[in-house]
Amino acid sequence: MIMIKKIKYILLLAIIPINLFAQNYPDKPNRIVNDYANFLTIQEQNALENKLVMFSNQTSSQIAIAVVKSLDGYDPASYAFGLGEHWGVGQKGKNNGILILVKPKYSNSKGEVFIATGYGMEGAVPDAIAKRIVNNEILPYFKQGMYYKGLDEVTNRIIELTRGEYTADEYKKATSSSGSAIPGIIFFLIVVIFSFIGRARRARHYAVGHNVPFWIAMGMMSSNRSHGGSFGNFSSGGGSFGGFGGGSFGGGGAGGSW
Amino acid sequence: MKKKWITIIVIVVIAIFIYSSIKGTYNKMIALDEGVKSQWAQVENVYQRRADLIPNLVSIVKGYAAHEQETLTGVIEARAKATSTTIDPSNLNAQSIQAFQQAQGGLSSALSKLMVVVERYPDLKANQNFLELQAQLEGTENRITVERQKFNNSAQGFNTYIKQFPKNIYANMFSFDEKAYFKAQENADEAPKVEF
User: What distances in angstroms separate CA A7 from CA A2, B20, B134, one per listed residue?
Assistant: First the structure.
């Protein structure tokens, strides 16, 4: 049994792709609103969080907010695309994510805001519209220090624009295995063989003990087993955030500074 | 008799193992190669998108700044040169990518000259259509940066894969060549910076 586990881990390690060009982005969070700079109060964060999680559950489109202390020397656009891609805002395949990146204004640096649109959102929120939203709905409030108001307005506008673009059809994770199939097959075979051996052994015990033919015991085992552990499904409804879905960003969006 | 069978089985197993390892490696190389090619198509796409914006931009600027004929002609010529330089995606070597990058870089610098000139025309800068074009142009420059970065990543993935032992032997056998990268250029490829 320990052997199987070991093999499993080794195979898993072999399959996981190594992410080149990784930067120091914050780790993938389990909230949709992430304030790393104490930009908003807890109540304000929760209000935005509830609104955006509800929108995500209704439409599968995800509007994430990230407030970071520093852009690590990157321009806001590059940082926003990189972070959006790193977190995977939006759903895989639909790429219907939007990331609103904010770097607060400090005494020695300007405030920056950038709306990054995923590939699938470029139609609903074209760059020119994103620019207009930044100039008309965000910056006027941010300049007065009304941060929550600005973010509340901008998310409302984006929700208006993108509602109807995607529907929350039962989202199934695309089982795309573009990598080499061999490790997968070997892994699969090993798992099957070992589980078969284990099950057969237990079935034989069962069959001997209960006076049932071996193959019937085998069938009973497998039907019992199928109720076992199920994978954590994508949670829906209920107001809980199911996590980012692996959306991708191609450079759409616009930003501004104050 | 028994020994003979064991030998045959061992040989068959080894043959199957070798076959499947070559097959797997080859298919993976094909998949990675296709990935690089489709990412290249994305790169060309976003450059094309920029080229498509230019006629509108030129005609708007012309309306306000007819005196800047020289700068405008520069942009139009650079655009023609850039759109005529295309690469066969199965031949993504250093020379072809450099030629492509040079042609596009020429357009970038012509555009940034135009954007400097535009600063002298307040009426133009207040024009709503111009502002939207400007936002689109900025967005397109961002897209170019992102897609180039993604191209470099996928090219690096491919190169790393085919250079490892023993895959390099197969790569040679099936003549898979290393892909070239986009290189950051001094000044020439800088996105036009526009201050309001």
Answer: 9, 20, 56
